Amino acid sequence: MVWPAGMNAAPDFAPRFLPDVEFARLKAAVIARTGHFYYEDKDALLWERLRRRLRETGLPGPAAYLERLRDPARGEAEWAALEAEITIGETFFFRYAEQFAALQQTILPDILARRREERRLRAWSAGCASGAEPYSLGILLRRMLGEALPDWRLSLLGTDLNEAALAMARRGQYSRWALRSLPAEELERDFLPGADGRSWLLRPQHRALVRFERQNLLGLLDGTAPLEMDGFDLILCRNVLIYFHPEVVERLVRALAARLAEGGWLLLGHAEPNPVFAEFLEVVNLPGTVAYRRGGDPLPALPPRPVVPLAAPMAAPPP
């Protein structure tokens, strides 16, 4: 990376962006690790976020920072900090009313009916950010089950790459902006006013329904995802796949489908359905949204293989 004259570390202001081989190698490592092909053509945006970590660590540039990421002792902690910078965590409670209507009117009644004998339900929010999505699902299930809730074994899992977002999720404390879709009576019923007078704290009975884990979605492809992440009645993976390369998206959806129980449901973001998914999942058209369902036939197993870096090193710019 080329700094202005006299600079030997990341400055506090943004220099004119000059992509070079060192930055390209770092970008390739980021895309390979996170799958975020979103940054393939957004060098300036990625650089702006990398600069924050360079300032924090005091490292002189991309080459030194890549060495830090590869450091056996300090690399994983730095990856966690970097992933918190580069992931996009926009979320709010009951986002996409049409999908929550489909959950309430069709999807969850189907699951509850199929599981009425064993009274067990497993759901996974993949890419849950700060937890609004799985908490919304838990609130909805509490409403639907009512007094029967204690008789059910609910396993609601939220996973994300961003450890900072997961820490927020575990606290269950949100700004009014994240609660903007809630009517006043629901806000007061499900949340407590925060001590700061500006935030709201999810009531403990709702927080207790969801557990959170740091997981990389690419673990489904390279064989590192926990084996117990399986047999889900419902998987929500909404507005996550838009950041991945199309070839990786198809593999991820196949892998998600393989983690569904027979008859299990998959909900994606509104912009993410693809006709190719109909080759291995049943397409269910519902008012205002499309859902997918796994049939009874076993899905062909995909051999684990890592995601190949898709960002090739670029030539250094001319002097």
TrEMBL record:
Reactions this protein catalyses: L-glutamyl-[protein] + S-adenosyl-L-methionine = [protein]-L-glutamate 5-O-methyl ester + S-adenosyl-L-homocysteine
UniProt KW keywords: Methyltransferase, S-adenosyl-L-methionine, Transferase
GO MF term set: protein-glutamate O-methyltransferase activity
Domain of life, per lineage: Bacteria
EC number(s) given by UniProt: 2.1.1.80
Gene Ontology BP, a term: methylation
Keyword Cell membrane (UniProt): no
InterPro entries: Bact_Chemotaxis_MeTrfase, CheR_C, CheR_MeTrfase, CheR_N, CheR_N_sf, SAM-dependent_MTases_sf
Ranges for domain CheR-type methyltransferase: 18-297
Pfam families: CheR, CheR_N
Keyword Glycoprotein part of the UniProt annotation: no
Protein name, per record: protein-glutamate O-methyltransferase
Native species: Pseudoroseomonas cervicalis ATCC 49957
Taxonomic classification: Bacteria, Pseudomonadati, Pseudomonadota, Alphaproteobacteria, Acetobacterales
